[in-house]
Every structure is written in structure tokens, then in C-alpha cells.
Amino acid sequence: MARGKANGNGFSNHANGNQLISRTITGLKRWSIINKDLPAVSQVRAIHVYDFDNTLFLSPLPNPQLWNGPTIGFLQSLESFTNGGWWHDPALLAATGEGMEKEETRAWNGWWNEQIVRLVELSMEQKDALTVLLTGRSENGFADIIRRMVGSKKLEFDLICLKPEVGPNSERFSTTMEFKQTFLQDLVLTYEQADEIRVYEDRVKHVKGFRDFFEDLNRSLQVVPAPRKPINAEVIQVAEGCTFLSPVVETAEVQRMINSHNKSIRQATSNATQSPYGRLRIKRTIFYTGYLISNADSNQLISQLLTPLLPSGLAESNDLKYMANSILITPRPAPRSILNKVGGIGKKLTWQVTGTAVFENKVWAARVAPVPATEKYYTENPLPVIVLAVRKGARPIDAGKIQNWHPVPAEKALTFETVVGEKVVLRVEEENPHEGEWESQFLNKNRKRRHQQERDQDILHTIIPVMVGAAAIMMTDCDVVARTAVVAAGEERHVVRATQAEEARVVGPVDAMAVLLAIDPWTITLDMMAVTKTSLDRVVLDPS
Q: Which residues form the Swiss Army Knife RNA repair protein HAD domain (predicted)?
């Protein structure tokens, strides 16, 4: 039975006509996943309602360091996977931090919005306030984990309400907003003596939706007779933060979702979301192959070479895009012929800055030479250069047009080490049986479907800089992961041994594994490394 809007008397209109709903505290409790005695109607003068995701709790989002833009939306869409997307899979929330077993003992320390936590505690202390946690997470999937998370933080709510499959009055909800508005109407009309209600929410679209809802409700309550007087409603928008899972854990969890989806599509009865997609897989998009520069050296290049060249005020503006992260080899995946020329993925090479230049006050670059000068290198640019920064709208490729270079003094002839690698992000797409390993590295431009996601009917896509590192993630369908991954790169072998905690976070909860194969010449921690690709024919798993 579909939910109806409030009629002139503030009651719900149902499909079988206007129906007067008897509102009682007992009926209101049916919305909640906790069995707690509620205060009498006469005792409540204020109602405080808190959203969960990114309002009270800093729920992890898909990491744009790992995934391309379309995949960020795809992961969050309800229909992408047969069992639902990012916001519908309890395992993703349970994977927050170091996993539920560890985090529960320390109350998910560091993952809460402590300002909102303090407000909840003040609500708990206020004798005439009713304190409510309201989230669009599904009751069937998330009741246990959210109850445990809130309990570990010692937060006491009068009501904890998740989106049910069927509401207390046989309602069915097509959206989170529809569910929340139905509940809020029941809440306000049950506690008819409350003078005010405050709703804390992070999403702009939901903030507007709640404000419009209360305006409409109060307008309907001005008609006589009315079930209660209009209520003073305030909707407070909470600044949304950005938190992410460990890259290793996140990729493993997405692979687990894909494996579950691929098994479910074989049976129509298992496709709970009516997903239109066939078998899915994780693919890589390679932006370029280059001599990658560490974060520390990149910062030094910017501070010592770029900053003195910038016009006054430009560094503080939003008009500048900092780069200084690589020396280009080729603006695409490098074929084997080019990889052979540069010594293969993982090959280290030392460089020295020999000059700087500016192109049309839009592109700032540094010219470099290998150390020693006889060392072999390859670049498709006229000279080996580092693009230090570009103005917005300018093209880094224009650095190749620079003719006049200014020699640098000896104290600015910086020397630094690079490693041959690829700038890569991952994407989730349908399998293509006619697509080989080489073709799969390029974005499928025929996939024009736009992905909406249930959490806000808008794609959450946070733009943050892609970090440069040298790690590789290999997707497999195996059930066992060796603790040590050995990557042969040229004549060298780099071994990275995962800690037991890191291994447990990947191996423990999933059937399909994501193996972190790392080349880490700059001792960057696993959590800080971006994802690049090491050719699978170079990978050997150490059975130890």
C-alpha cells in the first residue's frame, strides 16, 4: 500500500480513501529497532532527530583515488548489484576502520562526528526531549550493526528507526525521503504537545526536502479542526566529511560484491534489485606511463622551483593546479617495446633539474636530465620535463612547446629518484568476452547509462588529488591469498609483506581476494599508496 500525503487535517491519505489513523506511543514504537519505553506525550516538549550517515557517523564513501567518476556513481546505485549497492551492503559498513571485531571494542574511535555526538549527549540529558536516530539504511540489513555501533559509543536514543520493508501501517517506500517524511509525520502527530522539532541532516537535497515538508505540514495544521498546533521546526544542515576505507579493504569489498552479483544473476529469484547488468568485473584505466615522483620530492620541487616563479597571489588562488608528479614516458599504457626501453615497470632512475620555464603564463615546467648523463631513458616529449603546475583550462602537453629554458643555479639543481609506473584508476563494468587485456584498459565509451544512487538520488563524487605511488591490485576469484606478494621488476625483486591485521581485513570477510602487490621505493605506507598496475606476467605469489 503506497503512502499518501497529509490531508488538510494532517492525517495520511491511503489508497482506500481518507483514513483516520489512531496515533499512540505503542504504535510509534513499531518504527524502532529497540524496545525502549517512551516518555508520555505530556512529558515531551522538544524532539531531536539525528541522521546517521555522515551526520552522526563518518561513513566511508567510495574512494576517488581508486575509482573513476562513473564507477563512483555505479557503486552507490541500488540497481547496480543484485544485492544492492554501496549503501545497501552491511559488509561495507562493517569494514569501516579495522573491521567490526576491533572497532567495536574501541567504539569506532575517530569515526564519529564528535560535535554531533555531544549534541546527542545533551539531548539525552534534556528531560523534556525525545531523542531519535533516523536513517535510510534498511532495517533488514543494518539493524544489528547500527544498534551495536551506537551502543559501543554509549549513545541512548528513545527511538532508532531504519527503513523497513513494510511500514507499521503497511506502507511501502520507494525512496528514503518518503520513508522519513512518513515517520516524521507520525512522530509529530503522536507527540502532539511538543513545541519544537530539530532535524540534523548532511545532504543538501534532504535538508530542503525536510524544510518543505514541515512548511506543508504546518500549513495543514492551521485548518480547524487540527490534530495539533503547528510545530516550530528547524532543519540543521551538517557539513559532510569525506572518509574512506583502506584501499586494500575497499577493493576487496567491491570484488566481493561483484562475485556475489555474478553468482546471483544466474538465478532470477536471487536478483533482489532487478539489476539489469550481466557479469561484472574490475578493469583498469591507465592515464599515462611515466617516471613517477614521490610525494616528498614533489613537494620539494613545488616549494623550491615553482613557488618563486609564480605571480603574486596566484599560489593562494583556486586558479592553479599543482602537478610535479611525473616525467612523461607516454600518455597511454606503454606497449612492451617501450617498457623494454625504460627497463620495465618498477625501474628506478635518478634525475637532476637543469632548467625552468613558463609557457604563456599558463604552464610552469622544469627540464631534467638523467644521472649519470649516459643513463638510458625514453620520453615522447621533445625533452624530459616535469610539468610543475598549470592554470585551470591550460594543457600540460603545452610544456612541449617551450623553446627557452632558464638554467638553474647550483643550489636549485635538485636531484631526485623516480620509478617507472602507470597512473591508474579502477572501474567496474560488465564483462566483454571479446575484450582482451589490452582493450580492457580503456574506458568503454558505449556505456552511457547514468547511475543514480539511493542515498540521495544524486551521485556523490568528491574530487581529491590522485596520489602517486607504486602499488598494484590484482583481482582473482581464488579463496586463498598468500601473505607475501613478490613483484619482479627488471632485474630486481621487491617484497612487501602484509601485516596480519592488514591480511585479516582483506582475507577474513571475503570470498574473492584483492592482492596488494607493492613496489614501494619510497617506504610509503600501504594505506597511502595509490593504485598502479604491474603486468600480471611479472607477478609471482610467494607461498610462504
A: 59-263
* pLDDT tens series, the chain, 544 aa: 343 444 434 445 433 333 456 799 999 999 999 999 999 999 999 999 999 999 999 999 999 889 999 999 999 998 999 988 899 999 999 999 999 999 999 999 999 999 999 999 999 999 999 999 999 999 999 999 999 999 999 999 999 999 999 999 899 999 999 999 999 999 999 999 999 999 999 999 999 999 999 999 999 999 888 899 999 999 999 997 789 999 999 999 999 999 999 999 887 777 878 899 999 999 988 889 999 999 899 999 999 999 999 988 887 788 899 999 999 999 989 999 999 999 999 999 999 999 999 999 999 999 999 999 999 999 998 899 999 999 988 999 899 899 999 999 888 899 999 999 998 889 999 998 766 665 556 565 554 444 444 454 333 322 222 222 323 333 323 222 222 222 222 223 233 333 333 333 333 332 222 223 222 323 222 333 333 333 222 222 222 2
Which of helix, strand or coil describes residue 292?
A: strand
What's the CA dihedral at 299, 301, 305, 307 to 10 degrees? -20
Write 164-168 long-range contacts (CB < 8 A, 24+).
Answer: 164/31, 164/139, 165/138, 165/139, 165/140, 167/3, 167/31, 168/27, 168/30, 168/31
3-state secondary structure of 492: strand
Tally of CB atoms within 10 A around 524: 19
Read off the C-alpha cell for 87: 549503501
Question: In terms of Cα–Cα distance, which of 387, 229, 253 is closest to 323?
Answer: 387
Write the Ramachandran bin of 513: left for phi over 0, alpha for psi from -120 to 50, otherwise beta: beta
Q: Is 404 exposed, middle or buried (0-12, 13-18, 19+ CB in 10 A)?
A: exposed
Domains and CATH numbers, the chain: 21-60+96-237 (3.40.50.1000), 286-424 (3.90.1740.10)
- Taking phi first (over 0 means left), then psi (-120 to 50 degrees means alpha), and beta for anything else, what does residue 146 get? alpha
Name the residue with cell 607475501.
Answer: 484
Contacts of 97 (CB under 8 A, 6+ apart): 103, 108, 110, 111
Residue 30 is which amino acid? R
Please enumerate in sequence order all residues whose Cβ is within 8 A of that of 156, keeping only pairs 6 or more positions apart, or say none. 124, 131
Separation of alpha carbons 317 and 227, rounded Å: 55
Distance CA 76, CA 323 (A): 30
